[in-house]
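Hi R.,

Here's the chain you asked about this morning:
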Amino acid sequence: MPRTKKLTESAEDCLEAIYVLSKTKKVVRVKDIAKHLDTKMASIVVGLKTLAEKGLVEHEHYGYVELTPAGEEIAKKVHYRHQLLFEFFHETLGLPEKVADRDACRLEHYLSAEGLERIIKFIEFVKSCPEGAPTWLTNFYYFLQYGHYPKTCIQKLEKSIVSLDQLSSVQGEVIKLGGKASFKQALLKKGFVPGAVVKIEERTVEGLKAKIGKKQHFLTSEEAKQIFVKEI
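And here is the predicted structure, written out as C-alpha coordinates:
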Protein backbone atom coordinates (compact mmCIF):
# COMPACT_ATOMS: atom_id res chain seq x y z
CA MET A 1 0.00 0.00 0.00
CA PRO A 2 1.62 3.28 -1.07
CA ARG A 3 2.49 5.79 1.57
CA THR A 4 0.67 9.10 1.71
CA LYS A 5 2.83 11.87 0.23
CA LYS A 6 3.12 15.60 0.95
CA LEU A 7 1.51 15.35 4.39
CA THR A 8 3.26 15.96 7.68
CA GLU A 9 3.26 13.49 10.55
CA SER A 10 0.78 15.62 12.51
CA ALA A 11 -1.51 15.93 9.49
CA GLU A 12 -1.63 12.15 9.01
CA ASP A 13 -2.24 11.64 12.73
CA CYS A 14 -5.08 14.15 12.65
CA LEU A 15 -6.79 12.49 9.70
CA GLU A 16 -6.47 9.08 11.34
CA ALA A 17 -7.84 10.45 14.63
CA ILE A 18 -10.92 11.87 12.88
CA TYR A 19 -11.46 8.54 11.11
CA VAL A 20 -11.15 6.51 14.33
CA LEU A 21 -13.36 8.86 16.34
CA SER A 22 -16.06 8.88 13.67
CA LYS A 23 -16.50 5.14 14.18
CA THR A 24 -17.75 5.62 17.74
CA LYS A 25 -19.12 9.20 17.74
CA LYS A 26 -21.99 10.70 15.81
CA VAL A 27 -20.05 13.93 15.45
CA VAL A 28 -16.34 14.74 15.88
CA ARG A 29 -15.31 17.97 17.57
CA VAL A 30 -11.94 19.70 17.87
CA LYS A 31 -11.76 18.86 21.58
CA ASP A 32 -12.27 15.16 20.76
CA ILE A 33 -9.33 15.18 18.35
CA ALA A 34 -7.15 17.09 20.83
CA LYS A 35 -7.94 14.58 23.58
CA HIS A 36 -7.33 11.61 21.31
CA LEU A 37 -3.94 12.94 20.21
CA ASP A 38 -3.11 14.41 23.63
CA THR A 39 -2.34 17.83 22.19
CA LYS A 40 -3.64 21.40 22.49
CA MET A 41 -6.85 22.46 20.76
CA ALA A 42 -5.09 25.48 19.23
CA SER A 43 -2.69 23.15 17.41
CA ILE A 44 -5.58 21.06 16.12
CA VAL A 45 -7.38 24.16 14.82
CA VAL A 46 -4.28 25.22 12.88
CA GLY A 47 -3.85 21.72 11.49
CA LEU A 48 -7.49 21.48 10.44
CA LYS A 49 -7.22 24.76 8.57
CA THR A 50 -4.34 23.35 6.51
CA LEU A 51 -6.20 20.10 5.88
CA ALA A 52 -9.30 22.01 4.84
CA GLU A 53 -7.26 24.04 2.36
CA LYS A 54 -6.05 20.75 0.88
CA GLY A 55 -9.64 19.56 0.55
CA LEU A 56 -9.22 16.74 3.06
CA VAL A 57 -11.59 17.89 5.83
CA GLU A 58 -14.66 20.06 6.24
CA HIS A 59 -14.60 22.24 9.33
CA GLU A 60 -16.24 25.47 10.35
CA HIS A 61 -14.79 27.44 13.23
CA TYR A 62 -15.96 25.77 16.48
CA GLY A 63 -18.06 23.42 14.40
CA TYR A 64 -18.01 19.70 13.69
CA VAL A 65 -15.18 18.07 11.76
CA GLU A 66 -15.76 15.69 8.86
CA LEU A 67 -13.47 13.97 6.39
CA THR A 68 -13.98 14.58 2.70
CA PRO A 69 -13.89 11.49 0.45
CA ALA A 70 -10.24 12.26 -0.35
CA GLY A 71 -9.44 12.74 3.33
CA GLU A 72 -11.18 9.51 4.29
CA GLU A 73 -9.22 7.57 1.69
CA ILE A 74 -5.92 8.81 3.12
CA ALA A 75 -7.09 8.26 6.71
CA LYS A 76 -8.02 4.65 5.93
CA LYS A 77 -4.56 3.98 4.50
CA VAL A 78 -2.82 5.59 7.48
CA HIS A 79 -4.99 3.64 9.93
CA TYR A 80 -4.49 0.37 8.06
CA ARG A 81 -0.70 0.51 8.15
CA HIS A 82 -0.76 1.70 11.78
CA GLN A 83 -2.88 -1.29 12.78
CA LEU A 84 -0.66 -3.72 10.89
CA LEU A 85 2.46 -2.36 12.55
CA PHE A 86 0.77 -2.39 15.96
CA GLU A 87 -0.32 -6.01 15.56
CA PHE A 88 3.18 -6.97 14.45
CA PHE A 89 4.84 -5.34 17.46
CA HIS A 90 2.20 -6.54 19.94
CA GLU A 91 1.11 -9.96 18.67
CA THR A 92 4.19 -11.12 16.77
CA LEU A 93 7.04 -9.55 18.78
CA GLY A 94 5.16 -9.59 22.06
CA LEU A 95 5.60 -5.93 23.04
CA PRO A 96 3.13 -4.38 25.54
CA GLU A 97 0.18 -2.59 23.92
CA LYS A 98 1.27 0.95 24.79
CA VAL A 99 4.83 0.36 23.57
CA ALA A 100 3.57 -1.35 20.40
CA ASP A 101 1.21 1.53 19.62
CA ARG A 102 3.90 4.16 20.22
CA ASP A 103 6.50 2.35 18.13
CA ALA A 104 4.02 1.71 15.31
CA CYS A 105 3.30 5.44 15.13
CA ARG A 106 6.99 6.35 15.11
CA LEU A 107 7.96 3.73 12.56
CA GLU A 108 5.28 4.61 10.01
CA HIS A 109 6.41 8.24 9.96
CA TYR A 110 10.18 7.89 9.91
CA LEU A 111 10.87 5.01 7.53
CA SER A 112 11.40 5.59 3.84
CA ALA A 113 8.37 4.91 1.65
CA GLU A 114 10.15 1.87 0.19
CA GLY A 115 11.16 0.50 3.59
CA LEU A 116 7.67 0.95 5.05
CA GLU A 117 6.02 -0.70 2.07
CA ARG A 118 8.36 -3.71 2.30
CA ILE A 119 7.66 -4.15 6.03
CA ILE A 120 3.90 -3.86 5.46
CA LYS A 121 4.09 -6.55 2.77
CA PHE A 122 6.12 -8.77 5.10
CA ILE A 123 3.54 -8.39 7.90
CA GLU A 124 0.70 -9.10 5.48
CA PHE A 125 2.52 -12.23 4.36
CA VAL A 126 3.07 -13.47 7.91
CA LYS A 127 -0.59 -12.82 8.81
CA SER A 128 -1.87 -14.59 5.69
CA CYS A 129 0.36 -17.66 5.94
CA PRO A 130 -2.11 -20.59 6.00
CA GLU A 131 0.20 -22.81 8.03
CA GLY A 132 0.25 -20.54 11.08
CA ALA A 133 3.39 -19.41 12.87
CA PRO A 134 6.52 -20.52 10.97
CA THR A 135 9.23 -22.48 12.77
CA TRP A 136 11.62 -19.53 12.80
CA LEU A 137 9.04 -17.43 14.64
CA THR A 138 8.49 -20.13 17.25
CA ASN A 139 12.25 -20.35 17.72
CA PHE A 140 12.35 -16.57 18.09
CA TYR A 141 9.81 -16.74 20.94
CA TYR A 142 12.02 -19.36 22.61
CA PHE A 143 15.04 -17.04 22.24
CA LEU A 144 13.11 -14.13 23.79
CA GLN A 145 11.98 -16.27 26.72
CA TYR A 146 15.25 -18.01 27.58
CA GLY A 147 17.97 -15.81 26.10
CA HIS A 148 19.62 -18.55 24.04
CA TYR A 149 18.95 -20.36 20.78
CA PRO A 150 16.93 -23.58 20.60
CA LYS A 151 18.95 -26.75 20.11
CA THR A 152 17.50 -27.19 16.62
CA CYS A 153 19.00 -23.85 15.53
CA ILE A 154 22.40 -24.68 16.99
CA GLN A 155 22.42 -28.15 15.44
CA LYS A 156 21.60 -26.78 11.99
CA LEU A 157 24.29 -24.12 12.32
CA GLU A 158 26.90 -26.63 13.47
CA LYS A 159 26.16 -28.90 10.51
CA SER A 160 26.84 -26.05 8.10
CA ILE A 161 30.19 -25.11 9.72
CA VAL A 162 33.48 -26.56 8.48
CA SER A 163 37.12 -25.73 9.08
CA LEU A 164 38.68 -23.52 6.42
CA ASP A 165 40.88 -26.36 5.11
CA GLN A 166 37.72 -28.45 4.50
CA LEU A 167 35.77 -25.72 2.70
CA SER A 168 34.57 -27.16 -0.61
CA SER A 169 34.07 -23.76 -2.26
CA VAL A 170 36.46 -20.83 -2.45
CA GLN A 171 34.58 -18.46 -0.18
CA GLY A 172 33.15 -18.62 3.34
CA GLU A 173 32.02 -16.52 6.30
CA VAL A 174 34.10 -16.76 9.47
CA ILE A 175 31.94 -18.14 12.30
CA LYS A 176 34.41 -18.85 15.10
CA LEU A 177 38.08 -19.49 15.86
CA GLY A 178 39.71 -22.39 17.67
CA GLY A 179 43.12 -22.89 19.25
CA LYS A 180 44.94 -21.02 22.03
CA ALA A 181 44.15 -17.44 23.00
CA SER A 182 47.40 -16.08 21.53
CA PHE A 183 46.64 -17.80 18.23
CA LYS A 184 43.12 -16.38 18.15
CA GLN A 185 44.41 -12.89 18.87
CA ALA A 186 46.88 -13.15 15.99
CA LEU A 187 44.11 -14.21 13.60
CA LEU A 188 41.79 -11.45 14.82
CA LYS A 189 44.48 -8.84 14.11
CA LYS A 190 44.73 -10.19 10.55
CA GLY A 191 41.01 -9.69 10.04
CA PHE A 192 39.70 -13.20 10.68
CA VAL A 193 36.82 -11.96 12.81
CA PRO A 194 33.34 -13.57 12.99
CA GLY A 195 31.28 -12.33 10.08
CA ALA A 196 34.28 -11.57 7.84
CA VAL A 197 34.33 -13.11 4.36
CA VAL A 198 37.44 -15.15 3.57
CA LYS A 199 38.35 -16.16 0.04
CA ILE A 200 40.73 -19.02 -0.71
CA GLU A 201 42.96 -17.99 -3.60
CA GLU A 202 45.38 -20.93 -3.69
CA ARG A 203 45.82 -24.31 -2.01
CA THR A 204 49.27 -25.82 -1.59
CA VAL A 205 50.77 -28.84 0.15
CA GLU A 206 51.96 -26.61 3.00
CA GLY A 207 48.64 -24.79 3.46
CA LEU A 208 46.61 -22.19 1.62
CA LYS A 209 46.55 -18.54 0.62
CA ALA A 210 43.46 -16.77 1.89
CA LYS A 211 42.26 -13.22 1.33
CA ILE A 212 40.40 -11.08 3.87
CA GLY A 213 39.35 -7.78 2.37
CA LYS A 214 42.30 -6.62 0.26
CA LYS A 215 44.97 -8.46 2.27
CA GLN A 216 46.28 -11.92 1.46
CA HIS A 217 47.57 -14.26 4.18
CA PHE A 218 49.29 -17.63 4.09
CA LEU A 219 47.91 -20.18 6.54
CA THR A 220 49.43 -23.55 7.36
CA SER A 221 47.13 -26.56 7.28
CA GLU A 222 47.05 -26.62 11.09
CA GLU A 223 46.10 -22.94 11.24
CA ALA A 224 43.37 -23.38 8.64
CA LYS A 225 41.89 -26.20 10.75
CA GLN A 226 41.26 -23.73 13.58
CA ILE A 227 39.24 -21.28 11.44
CA PHE A 228 35.62 -22.36 11.19
CA VAL A 229 33.52 -20.98 8.38
CA LYS A 230 30.15 -21.27 6.72
CA GLU A 231 30.07 -21.61 2.95
CA ILE A 232 28.55 -18.65 1.11
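One quick note: The chain has a mean pLDDT of 86.

Cheers,
M.
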